Amino acid sequence: MAQRIPTRLGDGSLVELTRAEIEADLHAGSEAAAKRAKVEPLAQDEIEHLLDIFTSAAKFSSVDYGDEVVLSYDGAGNADLAAPVLEQVVYQNHHGADMIELWHHDYSYKAVRTVLSFQTQMLKDAQMQTVVPLNYGAMPDLGRYSQPDGPAPNWSELMPLGKIAEAREAQLEAVEHLEKDMWCVVEAMVAAGVDGLDFDTAGASGDADLLATLRVARRVRDTWPDIGVEIGQAAELVLGMHGELEYDGVRLAGQWPLGQLRACTAAGATIFGPAVNVNTTKSLAWNTARTCALVKPVTAEATIPVHVNAGMGVGGVPMTPYPPADATSRASRALVDICKIDGL
Questions:
Q1: 325: number of Cβ within 10 Å
Q2: Is the pLDDT of residue 75 over 80?
């Protein structure tokens, strides 16, 4: 009987698979990415390297000496700590973070604007107690500007009624409100001494969400050339909620990670964070191989650092509040070894 090897599913549950089953999943995940995104599947030697990682009996997997990468964080938080500034110190001193991020628990630029004076004071306090680069981050979160909570008509209600033109116009109205709020927060944080801005989960509400992010990123770069701009994506594919929006002459809807990289680079981003969602019913090996196949073209072309989103539910990491270390370490090592990423 073939040996069964402990591994994980995309939801974090522990399963046992044979070496042959894991190898088959690696090929299947790679081919799934190739088919959908029109990228090259992983080479056979890369599949074999991943197979060694996922069939190892070790509890934890790690890169070789000299292959370490930068660790940055979006919305870094600790459930045991109630003090945001203390969280930054903990992540720097105890978690080995190379970059940290101050954030508000309602992780949205719209919400941050209402408590901006408190957040800027907190940023100053955090800068006094830390050494590594400190970003301020939040989600663009365009959906917050739709009714009933926001000022713009709800495009998700208009589209099923066939009111496509009205839905598109509503999104453009929301984009104006979002850009205004993001810029208000950006100006205040730069004045307070931030090292960089993180526009996290960009494109969560589709192409209009990403367009607003890119416009603000470009404005930041033109106004403060030395301020860092990290853009972390929401998913591996930009949803065409509007469908006709372009940035730098290129349509945003339907962009896979390589297209997203090009748009973010054109907008002046200094760090690009691709995100590849996991399939909770597939194995860790399947999800990681798919992620590697989608990210590999990105690092091959990138002229700015690539920090893959490798957390709960993205980057091959299982979708569970506390992803197991045996899974996160394998997914992270795979991205470093196969894709030569700059950070996580």
A1: 11
A2: no
263: tokens are: 């748009």
Q: Helices in 71-154 by DSSP H: which ranges? A: 84-93, 109-114, 116-129
Rounded to an integer, what distance in angstroms lies between the CA atom of residue 227 and that of residue 97? 19
Across the chain, the runs of DSSP E, i.e. the strands, are: 4-8, 14-18, 100-102, 134-138, 196-202, 228-233, 246-247, 250-251, 271-273
Angle between helices 284-301 and 44-55 (to 10 degrees): 130
According to DSSP, the β-strands at 4-8 and 14-18 are antiparallel
User: Measured between alpha carbons, how far apart are the two ends of the chain, in Å?
Assistant: 38
Backbone angles phi, psi at 181, to 5 degrees: -70, -40
Edge-to-edge strand list for the sheet holding 228-233: 100-102, 134-138, 196-202, 228-233, 271-273
Beta-sheet pairing, 250-251 with 100-102:
unpaired
pLDDT at site 77: 58
Q: What pLDDT is recorded for position 133?
A: 96
Helix axes 207-223, 164-192, angle to 10 degrees: 30
pTM of the predicted model as reported, rounded to 2 decimal places:
0.95
- Residue 2: pLDDT band with limits 50, 70, 90: confident
DSSP state for residue 312 in the 8-state scheme: T
d(CA 266, CA 311): 26
Q: What is the mean pLDDT of residues 249-266?
A: 98
